[in-house]
């Protein structure tokens, strides 16, 4: 059985890869559409309102090539390119702005290249350096010097050795330990060069004061205004840190110089698809524009609700469908069989959302018969009730949603159960069992049911996508806070991060569900040789 | 060899039609379907704010609603009738004398009126006639249902047939692709794509549904082609030296098409349900396109208006039911063994 499971999981790998490809195409489709990109930004007036359309593109690496990157861009290549551009009058202005904006991260390359530059190019480089000098607090010294070029050459020969990742990491550690003014001054003089180390440090669990010191410094260096208040709750602080990490994930290549292996592996890792794959593999889908919380945390909160709903619907569908199908088959051609066949056919064709509305109107609390509560998962004030009463309350709330979610599956399964059972009833072993003296009920239950139920069990995996899909409408109508309702709201808010996440997560979960149902199939029908590839009937 | 009595050979299509015609429920459903499709095609004649024929001031207008006559832009049936009684002339009014987006009758907006002689099925919360919107809603629903399934059948037949006929790597690739797409909860996927692309036109909906729902047809086609490909006549065709494409399209596929048609028919019902559910959530075709799902949204927002809930819901349910019945009839007609 374990070998079977391992093999089955191995056959999943291509499909999981396929899912990541499909969602990747979706990302590019959505981001390639200017309307969608705009709507995402316009509606993001709340927490991420400051970020621009370009940032949204950066979130999915739209500035990177699709699959292979032959010319990796990092802080170094960017600075070198800008320095080259300084020689051309038409591109000079933009290059100066770009260099000055990069600040300390570009300084090592600019200062080192300065002696070899001539004429206009040198003048432009100096004007960029002047702006950088303002950032690192030595503008006074530059102004006082007779020859700025000579000053920078001297400055770089003295302080150039300070610009190393090891040193900035040490300074960041000092700042984390205590309010170290000296380290702060040193870090400021490194400017954006120390951003990678600051963000690395923010990624680990730190005391709130240390986090605040780091965030304050990062704000100062990048002009991104997103402060952290140490007195806030842990959750609120995490939201801020998440936003910073998301921001960093989108533009670490602007401040980092790739060294060693990363210059080689970058050909693969610095691509659009790999960025998406790494998000996909870690289920890290960034930050929701609706409330600034990480999408992963929101999914962790919403998913159990939808899973509970789907699971109950699945159980309900099988619990009704199997007896109905068996009795229909046993009384084949009788009045019961004919009536249920017609009813099941009609039920199968009913739109779930219409039935949900009718139920809500006529037996829910908004109707004349106030039999069922119509909104949410629990009654107000139920937090103080006993466990048993709370479970009862939840069941009361879930009755209608589960009914609406399950009836289509139920009708379909009952039809298949009837057909499957009819085939079994005609088998020789059934007659043999009857002949050896078992009662009719015993024959049906012991010999018939076990064989007749197999085709229906194999369909369990196929039910899952239906149930998850159906949850959107059911959750919307009954106001249940699950994945479906959140998706409904996310579309309205242009929350692309959530949409991508939900498509990916539901697909992967369905995949696992299908494996699980194959496993149940193998348990119910031991004739399946473990490890043999399964042919599911459609 | 003894020659038997000469019998007229009857093809499987003719046999299937004969078997289908023997099933009364399937025939009723087919008639209903034809009516719905006719409603969709003739929506502008059945329910319109312009007359079908109009003779006014010595000029004859034929179907002014369709040909977008400039003279009548600011007029509707009610003002035209008033004009006729003043200035003379005659008009043939459509059976439902209201347009799907006509909010005013005689200069008044009649919000949420219950069914009465003026509006047989009542009005919605913008004062539009519900019957007119149901008739025009049939158009959206049939367009998306039939259009998207035509697209997905084309895709599914091509992919399924090529996979099964050539086997090996193409087959395995296609299977992985099918398994991958099956894992996506279809409605979630379609909803998310609609959200990512922003709600566009009905055509966008047709393409999205068509591009995501071809897996069922591909699976059926693949199974059928695998069955047919081993028949003797295919070997014979191969022995004659025919090309692969010719064998596949002229000899293999015709023998496999029955179950594909059945699967496509059920697919239309599914696509119509998807369209109406998307419209119900507000992410279908953009307003003011009339759609059954959008009518039901009005019903959801306006408690106590039974006519908004019942009639569009019935239209939708009966259409889906009859398509499923047609599909069921087809299945038994094509494959009597089942």
Question: Can you describe what's shown?
Answer:
The complex is a heterodimer of chains A (538) and B (338). With 538 residues, chain A is mainly α. Chain A has helices at residues 2-31, 34-42, 53-59, 75-85, 89-102, 107-113, 119-136, 139-144, 148-159, 165-177, 181-190, 195-202, 208-222, 234-251, 262-269, 272-282, 295-330, 335-349, 352-362, 387-425, 428-435, 440-452, 454-458, 460-478, 483-493, 496-524. Chain B is mainly alpha-helical and 338 residues long. Helices cover 66% and strands 4% of the residues of chain B. Chain B has helices spanning 12-21, 24-41, 43-46, 64-67, 77-87, 130-166, 168-183, 186-197, 202-212, 215-228, 232-239, 244-281, 292-301, 306-334, and strands at 53-56, 59-62, 90-92, 104-105, 108-109. The mean pLDDT of chain B is 84. Chains A and B meet through α1, α2, α18, α19 and α24 of A and α7, α8, α10, α12 and α13 of B.
What are its keywords?
heterodimer, A: 538 residues, mainly alpha, elongated, B: 338 residues, two-stranded antiparallel ribbon, 14 helices
Topology pattern of chain A, helix = H, strand = E: HHHHHHHHHHHHHHHHHHHHHHHHHH
Helix content of chain A: over 70%
| Helix segment tally of chain B | 14
Strand order of the largest sheet of chain B: 2-1-3
Distance between the termini of chain A: 24 Å
Give the overall form of chain A: elongated
Order of helices and strands of chain B: HHHEEHHEEEHHHHHHHHH
Query: What composes the largest sheet of chain A?
Result: none
Layout: helices, strands, pairs:
The complex is a heterodimer of chains A (538) and B (338).
Chain A: H1 2-31, H2 34-42, H3 53-59, H4 75-85, H5 89-102, H6 107-113, H7 119-136, H8 139-144, H9 148-159, H10 165-177, H11 181-190, H12 195-202, H13 208-222, H14 234-251, H15 262-269, H16 272-282, H17 295-330, H18 335-349, H19 352-362, H20 387-425, H21 428-435, H22 440-452, H23 454-458, H24 460-478, H25 483-493, H26 496-524
Helix pairs in contact in A: 1-26, 4-5, 4-6, 5-7, 10-11, 10-12, 10-13, 12-13, 17-18, 17-20, 17-24, 18-20, 19-20, 19-24, 20-22, 20-24, 21-22, 24-25, 24-26, 25-26
Chain B: H1 12-21, H2 24-41, H3 43-46, E1 53-56, E2 59-62, H4 64-67, H5 77-87, E3 90-92, E4 104-105, E5 108-109, H6 130-166, H7 168-183, H8 186-197, H9 202-212, H10 215-228, H11 232-239, H12 244-281, H13 292-301, H14 306-334
Antiparallel strand pairs in B: 1-2, 1-3, 4-5
Helix pairs in contact in B: 1-14, 2-6, 2-14, 6-7, 6-9, 6-10, 6-12, 8-9, 10-12, 11-12, 12-13, 12-14, 13-14
